[in-house]
Amino acid sequence: MKIEAEWMRGGTSKCWVFEGEHLDETHKDLDSLLPRLFGSPDHRQIDGVGGSTSTTSKAMILRRPADPDVDVEFTFAQVGIEEAAVDWGSNCGNCSAVVGLYAIEKGWVTPNGDNTRIVTRNTNTGQIIIQRVGTPAGALPIVPDAQMPGVVFPGYRVGLGFMDPAGKTTGKLLPTGEPTDTISAGGTRWTVSMVDAGAPVVIVKAEELGLDTARFGSWQAGVMLQLDTLDQIRRQSAVRMGLASTVQDAARAIPKLAIVGAPAAGDTSTGDAGTGDSADVNVMMLSMGKPHPALAITGSIALTLAASTPGTVINSITGSEPRSILRLRTPAGVIETWSEERHGSLLVGVDRTARTIATTTLHLPELLGSAVEPSFASAAQ
User: Fold this and answer.
1) How far is residue 220's CA from residue 284's CA, in Å, rounded to a whole number?
2) Rounded to an integer, what distance in angstroms lies between the CA atom of residue 57 and that of residue 263?
3) Predicted model pTM
C-alpha cells in the first residue's frame, strides 16, 4: 500500500503532511501506522521517514471541514522516537505554518490580495489560528524570499495569529489559579509558573538552576546536567495542571518547559545565533526532554500571555507595562511575538516561514497487524 504525503518545513520544524482522506484509505490505526512510517522505536528511525529528533519527528493531518467559517482543520501528531507512540496532546506552532501554504499550493484556498487569509482550526486544542500567507499581486512568489531566525534558507512568510488562546487545553490561563507555585524536585524547592495558552507550559527561573543570565550562550551546558530534575518538575506540573493523574502518566510533549532569565544590560550573547539583537527576556525551552534549538511557537504564545500576567516568573522580568511586541531571545536568535485586539478577540501571534521540500509517495509496510478503522477521537481531547 502507498500513501501520498508532502515533506514540509514550518518555522524551525519539519513535518510530514498527510490528507486525512488518504490515511482513512489505509484502514490502519494511526497510533500504530505513524510510528511504523517514521521508523520508531529506533533512535535513528533508520527504517522510516523520521529525522531522529523531536523537531523532525512530526506529522500534520489536514482536512477540509464542512464548517464554512473554517478553511482547513488540522491535527498534529508528535511521533515518538525511542517509543512506538504518538502524542496527540498538544499542537506544534512551527508546523502549523505549513497549513496555510499547503492549502494555497493545493488549490483549497484561492490567493487574494497581497496577503491571503486562511482560517484554520487545530483539533488537538480546538484553537482557531488565523494564518496570513504573503501573496504579492495575488500569488505566491516564484522564489520564496522571507527569512527568520533559526533557518538558514528563506521560505514563504506565514503569520500565525492565535485567537483567544488562553486555556484551550486546561480551561484556564493559570491552571492552578496562581501565578506561581512551588515544586520540590531533586532535593530543591523551585518557584514556577504554570500557564496554558497555545500549549501548557511550566516556566522556571534560570537563576534557580544556577545559570548565568549574563551569558546566555552558556546555558545549554548547564541545562544538560539537570535534565532529570527538570523532567521531574515538568511531570509534577502535569499533575498539578490536570494533564495527568500521576507523574508516571505525564506525556513527553506536554506540558512544555521553558527556562527564562533577564538579559544583562548591554548583553549581545545569543548562543549560536551570532546576532546582537536586543531582547526583553532570554528563553531556553525543552522539547521531548532536550533543549529546543529555537522555540516552540505554541510555547511562545504561552510566554507572551504569561509576560503580561502580574506575578508570574516571566512577568517579574518583563514588567506589567502593556506592550504590543515581546522579544524573546532563543538559541537561534530573537523571535518577536505580537498581540492585538480584533473584533472583540485577542490575537497573539508570530511570523514564521514555510516551504515544501518534497512531494512523494510513502510505501506502507504491511506488518502492522489487523486493520482497524482510524480514529481521530484521541486527537480532539
Assistant:
1) 8
2) 32
3) 0.82
DSSP readout, 229-253?
HHHHHHHHHHHHTTS-SSGGG--SS
Cα 172 to chain centroid distance, Å, stands at 19
> Is the N-terminal amide bond of 41 cis, ω within 30° of 0?
yes
Cell of 58: 512530526
- Residuewise pLDDT in 10s, the chain (381 residues): 899 999 999 999 999 999 999 999 999 999 999 999 999 999 999 999 999 999 999 999 999 999 999 999 999 999 999 999 999 988 999 999 999 999 999 999 999 999 999 999 999 999 999 999 999 999 999 999 999 988 999 999 999 999 999 999 999 999 999 999 999 998 999 999 999 998 999 999 999 999 999 899 999 999 999 999 999 999 999 999 999 999 999 988 899 999 999 998 755 443 333 344 789 999 999 988 889 988 888 999 999 999 999 999 999 999 988 788 999 999 989 999 999 888 889 999 999 999 999 999 999 877 554 444 444 444 444
How many Å apart are CA 345 and CA 369, to the nearest integer? Answer: 47
